[in-house]
Design goal:
- There is one protein chain.
- With 225 residues, this protein is mostly helical.
- It has one domain.
- Helix content is 47%, strand content 9%.
- The longest helix has 32 residues.
Length: 225
């Protein structure tokens, strides 16, 4: 599902720094990590199959439109892939974005009372159920269970050399940002710090630790809105 760089990324003055000048992070070629991803994604997709119909019906009844939200995101070394989530916003959310105040600092967008989020969408986000379809991205190899927050194409087009370093690993459904603040983190530089810390700390056992921490964060609804 991966594609080549989009024009916005290819024209970035920092794109060649990552694609030509950096070596692969050890996690990228880890057989253990890939096996963990495959097993975890299969379990996640089994869970998805159990809740797919009721969630799909709820989304449709609450706000008619597509069940899934599909968006171009940037993964390992800036490769573009199509991220899949349950739709939690109104269908014309992108057109309305300019009217919403960004409460975050830097190359991310957050608003705690974002009016574009539907009633069902609020529940899906607080419970992280909107993330379940991303297990397909993990199975396909575009993402990992644990990694960095997958950025949008327009965000990456504005990256500095420091920001590009976070793309030395695959994006993850969860990661340091998920277990250390989640949606409460509103400074992009802090997210970058956490992503780079993950790269420096990574071992197969550390991925298991992050996954276990994520289960606690999700069920306790820590930092979700």
């Amino acid at each position: 599902m991966q594609s080549t760089f989009s024009p916005a990324i290819a024209n970035s003055p920092h794109s060649q720094t990552l694609t030509l000048g950096s070596s692969l992070h050890p996690s990228v070629n880890s057989s253990f990590k890939r096996v963990l991803d495959i097993v975890g994604s299969l379990v996640g997709l089994m869970l998805l199959s159990l809740v797919l119909v009721p969630i799909a019906v709820a989304i449709k009844l609450d706000n008619p439109g597509p069940i899934f939200f599909i968006q171009k995101r940037c993964g390992l070394r800036g490769q573009v892939f199509h991220l899949v989530k349950f739709r939690s916003m109104v269908t014309n959310a992108d057109e309305l974005k300019a009217q919403i105040k960004n409460e975050a600092k830097g190359l991310i967008f957050k608003n705690r009372q974002d009016p574009r989020i539907t009633r069902v969408g609020k529940f899906l986000r607080k419970t992280s159920l909107d993330e379940l379809p991303q297990f397909w991205n993990v199975l396909m190899g575009d993402m990992s269970l644990v990694g960095t927050r997958p950025p949008t194409v327009d965000e990456v087009a504005q990256y500095s050399d420091r920001h590009w370093q976070r793309l030395n690993v695959k994006p993850g459904i969860t990661g340091e940002w998920q277990v250390n603040g989640r949606s409460a983190i509103e400074d992009f530089e802090q997210i970058v710090d956490l992503d780079l810390r993950y790269q420096s700390r990574w071992t197969p056992s550390y991925d298991l630790f992050v996954i276990l921490r994520t289960l606690y964060v999700v069920f306790a609804r820590v930092g979700a809105f």
